[in-house]
Amino acid sequence: MDLLRLGCFAVFVALGLLAARAGGRTDARRFTNRLIGYVLAVTAVVGLVQQESWPFTTWSLVSGTPARHMTSLEVEGLDASGRGYVVDLRVVQPLSPEELASWLKANEDRLGPSGQESLGRFLLQRAEEGRQRFLDGGRAAPNQWLLGPADAPYHFHDAKTWKSTAQVPAAPFTRLRAWFLEWDIDERYADDRRVTRRLLFEYPRPPGDGRSL
Amino acid sequence: MTGEASSGTSAWARFWYGPEPARNLAAARILLAATALWVVLSRHDLPGILAYPPEMWAGVSPERRVRFLMVFGVGFDRALYALLHAALLCALVGLWPRVACFVAGLLCYHFAPFETIIRTANPYLRGLTIPCLGLLVVSFSRCGDALALWPRPPAQPPPSWAYRWPLRLLQVLFCQIYLFAGWSKLFTTGWSWASAENVRGHLLALNQALVADPGASWGYAVARHPLACSTLAWAGLALEFAFPLVLFSRTARRVLLPAAAVFHAANSVLFRIFFQNVPLLLLFVDWDALARIRRRG
């Protein structure tokens, strides 16, 4: 299917190039009509049956019913003294925190100890780089490298966890824990504390964790 | 040809091939390039995602990599990403605009999916969908006949159908965002999507997931009132299905374009959903008429 979708895009480009080449000729409209007809047909099919062929797409936006049970990712960095700090997930940019959390949720069971090790190493490195950048008067979010707070936000507004230097340690992060926060939306609406924390993994793995790589 | 068919043909011709000032198409080129450049400058080292842990790439099939031409190494893709910046800048200021738009359009196709590829091959709400298609469409047309640095555009080219069809196609593609957003709700959920309970659920779920203190959010404030939730849903659906009228009516443009801007502001505040292509609402502005008014004034 992916190659078919590539073909769909390639035909669009080819028809466009033909229309461009015919630009000044008397039969130019025949070629532009073909291009227009093709775009209208593909976008109509994709939109109506709601099957993407990006960049021809479904434009589906909060079209379903909301999940009652929600999950979000929290990464906790620990310094050498063992004190924990919530990591601002913007440190994983240009990947959005939402994409990372969704991917992790879908692949949680498949990850295994070696996958957790690899992901933990990556997250710890990103968290530490972010901590240093933040303390150096820079910004936690790599995406703000040029435009600062005028950068284009992601589709879902990402939470800006680090707002003051008191939220990050002066010493480097040496360990990391990844948690899933889970809740029922109505229970949490009634009481914001009704959130459970489930440990996904810790990096480096604590001594005594006998799982083999 | 029957009279009916003839009238049908002329309606098609009027819509796609009526006279259009070169300036309006050039303004569309600038809007698309500026929007894409804003997004690209806000995605630091996008090709660097190739170097993320291999476990994150395990679910991306070889076919999917081929589909988006993700077959190069990080170093080469970083060079291509720099080329995308340069092409967008050239498209913006009008330096070899057709070539620049073509290159930028193709590179948007290549890079936009990086942001979501580990989860989905459909990066449609990440800001580069309309720029990708739009930059290619304008590259197929005489988008450099105004507001361009080089090659020097002709002095005051007369309005032509050659400037109309690409602009119209862009506008149609933009209208589809709203039309299919409305349709997808009915397709996926049916009319019950517009129930107060459903909208309340979305407000709670999104604010709880995305806001540090959801209790203090505007989303929660609206969620407390079923009538407000219902009104929000029906108003949103009405806007989405009515929006394509902007293609046919000046009055509709005066009403629906500001309404769409308010709709996106409300989405941002209440649902925490940001739409990076809001500036492309300006595709419907008659820039040539504004310039003439300014000259006379």
Helix content of chain B: 55-70%
Determine the N-to-C terminus distance of chain A.
35 Å
Number of domains of chain A: 2
User: Unreliable segments of chain A (pLDDT under 50, ≥5 consecutive)?
Assistant: none
Structural class of chain B: mainly alpha
Radius of gyration based on Cα positions of chain B: 22 Å
Helix tally of chain B equals 13
Number of helices of chain A: 4
- Report the average pLDDT across residues of chain A: 94
Mean pLDDT of chain B, to the nearest integer, reads 96
> What shape does the CA trace of chain A take?
elongated
Distance between the termini of chain B: 47 Å
Biggest sheet strand line-up of chain A: 2-1-3-4
Oligomeric form of this entry?
heterodimer
Order of helix and strand elements from N to C terminus of chain A:
HHEEHEHE
The most extensive interface, with participating residues per chain, is: A-B, 81 and 91 residues
| Number of strand elements of chain A | 4
Low-confidence stretches of chain B: 1-5
Shape of chain B: globular
Secondary-structure map with pairings?
The complex is a heterodimer of chains A (213) and B (297).
Chain A: H1 2-21, H2 28-49, E1 69-79, E2 84-86, H3 97-135, E3 173-184, H4 185-190, E4 196-203
Antiparallel strand pairs in A: 1-2, 1-3, 3-4
Chain B: H1 3-17, H2 22-41, H3 54-57, H4 62-67, H5 74-93, H6 97-111, H7 129-139, H8 161-188, H9 196-210, H10 218-223, H11 226-242, H12 250-271, H13 287-296
Helix pairs in contact in B: 2-5, 2-7, 2-8, 5-6, 6-7, 7-8, 8-11, 9-11
